[in-house]
Amino acid sequence: MTWVFPALGVLVAVLTSISRGSARRYLYASGLGLLVLFFAFPFSSALGYLSREAVHPTPLGLLPSYPWLGLIALAGLAALVPWSRRLHGWVGALAGLVVLVLIYGWLARPVFLARVVPLPGVMEGAIALGLALLAGLAARGRGRAVSLLVALLIGGGSYALLAGPTGHTYFPRLVGYYKLLTPVPESETRELIERYNAGLEKANALRAEIGLKKLEPIGSLADLQGGLPKDLAREGVRLVRPASLRYGTLAALFLAGLMLASGFFLARKPELAEEGDLTGGLVAAGVFAVLVPSFYATEFSLARLVKGWPFFVNFLDRAWPPRLADPAHNVFPLQEVASQMALTVEIALVGTFLAMLFAVPTSFLAARNLTRGSGLTRAVFTLMRAFYNVDRGVDTLILALVFVAAVGLGPFAGVLAMAIHSIADLGKLYSEAIENVEKGPIEALEAVGASGTGVVRWAILPQVLPLFVAYTLYRFEINFRVSIVLGFVGAGGIGFFIQNAMASGMYDQMIIGIIAIVLVVNLIDFGSSWLRSKLV
User: Fold this and answer.
1) Beta-strand (E) ranges in 271-332?
2) What is the predicted pLDDT for the residue at 94?
3) Residue 82 half-sphere exposure, CB side, CA atoms within 13 Å?
């Protein structure tokens, strides 16, 4: 099924051509994507004795074993060169075809042995370089020299910390994380196979004692079942299986198909190019480079979803029709749902109201245009903004867990968590509204000697009050949804009811809570929209 991925790349290019989009942009994107993939994406699996000893090298890591993989990087560079449009198309098409042939050639290779050669400092340097680039971009507005100095200090300090004893203490996996695989000579491979066969009698005797299947002598590495013998793995030898697909292989196939088809269309129709193609391609490649590992890390799998489909069918069978009441067993789910839903709304109301009480005064201290007067007010501004950033960084669910442990189960913990987290969100929105007020009324009042409170009362509040109301209503909508989730950690409300019903297998009661949530969410949404239209 590997043909699906280059076919998807071709399909993207075809749709782009039909819609008269830029084919050259995808050439740039696929070129940069192949470069990132060459250095950073796992390409195959190399097995040890235990599953945790497996190594997943990148194309660069496999270069000593299969030098032709270097053409992936060359193809990426060729696609990034700003050729003339038609020539760029033919170069891209040829590069994509070469990468496809190269990958299928690699997948067809037999298994082989290779030694792991760790490269110390590579991952530490990559992380330090990334931090340096981020720091340089953050300081960009302060001058080129300052930006460069900040980047060098951050990058150098990060590398020294990560590559030193302290970094290796806290991040031990960074030590030799990046690895090369050098092939074991054929003569040594035959010697290892002979040694493996010679030790089978002893190994099978031990396996027979614990009821394991007898191992047969092997004539080649392809006969090995599973990983390597323990003694070989301890020597740093790994069994490389080129046909074992990793997400880097699949991504390379997609990019090769995209490059091939995009190059072909650009060569045939040079007008399929736009200004800013390079920038657009770099952005697309960046998104691709982040999304592909993310899909792998989250174990996204449509096959698993299909496999789990019978559970959904079973859930619907057990959940419908809803059981609104069961007087025979003194169970009244509809009444319980109505009560818990009212509690959920009340949690959101109280949490939002408390947050608003604290956010309104603090937002004036966090508004840049009101705190320029002295060093003290600027310091207050910095502290308030820092508080907002810290507060917003701690999720409501985490706060709820802390408060449940502190004050016990129930809605009070949910109210506290919601109020504290919402202060920062509302305060940031309020302060930004204050920063964008018209300066004319403020200057007029200051010119006639009005006090600071008078300026706030007559020049600022009339401008920002409608926005304050709108932001508060919007935050209430969010807090209602959040309060549903807080019930799952013991903070009360409809979420607590759904969790209990789910844990008890009472799906026909749980579905009542889900239906109630949908109805109330829509009511709150329409109601707040109507109220905002009247007040703003």
Assistant:
1) none
2) 92
3) 7
Cis peptide before 310 (omega within 30 of 0): no
Cα–Cα dist 423/335, whole Å = 33
Q: What does the H/E/C string look like for 286-324?
A: HHHHHHHHHHHHCCCCHHHHHHCHHHHHHHHHHHCCCCC
DSSP letter, residue 374: S
Closest CA relative to residue 504, chosen from 281, 298, 261, 323: 323
Going from the C-alpha of 175 to that of each of 32, 58, 179, 499, the distances in angstroms are: 28, 17, 10, 43
The Cβ of residue 297 has, within 10 Å, a number of other Cβ atoms equal to: 9
Which helix (H) or strand (E) is 116 found in, with range? strand 112-118
CB 476 within 8 A of CB 520: no
Q: Give the list of residues 6+ apart from residue 504 with CB closer than 8 angstroms, or none.
A: none
Torsion of CA 344, 346, 351, 355, to 10 degrees: 140
In what order do the strands lie in the sheet containing 237-241?
Answer: 45-47, 237-241, 112-118, 179-183
The model's pTM: 0.71
Both tokens of 219, joined, read 């004539």
Which span out of 131-145, 186-200, 353-367 was modeled with the highest average pLDDT?
Answer: 353-367
